[in-house]
Amino acid sequence: MATDSTATEILLITGPAGVGKSTLSWALGDALAEARIRHAAVESDELDRVFPKPDTGQLDALSPGARDISQINLAALWASYRALGHTRLIMSGVMLHVDFDQRWILAAIPDAAITVVRLRASDETLVARLDRREVGAGREAQIERSLRQARRMASEAGGGLIEVATDGRTPQDLAREILDATGWAAAAG
Q1: Residue 157 CA, distance from chain mean position
Q2: pLDDT tens, position by position, for the chain (189 residues)?
């Protein structure tokens, strides 16, 4: 957790597809807004939703050394939010390679302290949630992909991150737990 009042604090919400990352991020944002705590929120999927993907030459021309358009876009977004006085960011995404993802996030926001929150749910819960949101021919492939993501994340050591089960819990309860665990809720007092 950042101790300098001007440093950036990031809650990096991760987990397999369908676990509730976006819904939790919205609940966190609502709770912070209610407490009058300044923050911004970014879904990492939206940082690189472009076709065709830029090649390394194009990326290097925009930002020397950048390896991904997500890094460049996050830096641009954060520059605007930071100019408005924000020091807290909620960011969500699958993030299968947390160490790698933290590196590109820190390249975009060098003064950041990142707290990783990994969400998990039972296979039954993931399938039920994906059943509600996925339609069409890609449904089965998405369910299998999400279950693979969940297994991979469960097999990794959880050192230095907060793990939260989402089964049977409301997004508001999860948000309160995470804000208490990270100390963000105390910032309003």
Answers
A1: 19
A2: 444 456 899 999 999 999 999 999 999 999 999 999 999 999 999 999 999 999 999 999 999 988 889 999 999 999 999 999 999 999 999 998 888 899 999 999 999 999 999 999 999 999 999 988 877 778 888 899 999 999 988 887 667 889 999 999 999 999 999 999 999 987 654
**Distance separating alpha carbons of residues 44 and 40, to the nearest angstrom:** 13
Say which CATH number the domain at 61 has.
Answer: 3.40.50.300
Q: Domain for residue 92, yes or no?
A: yes
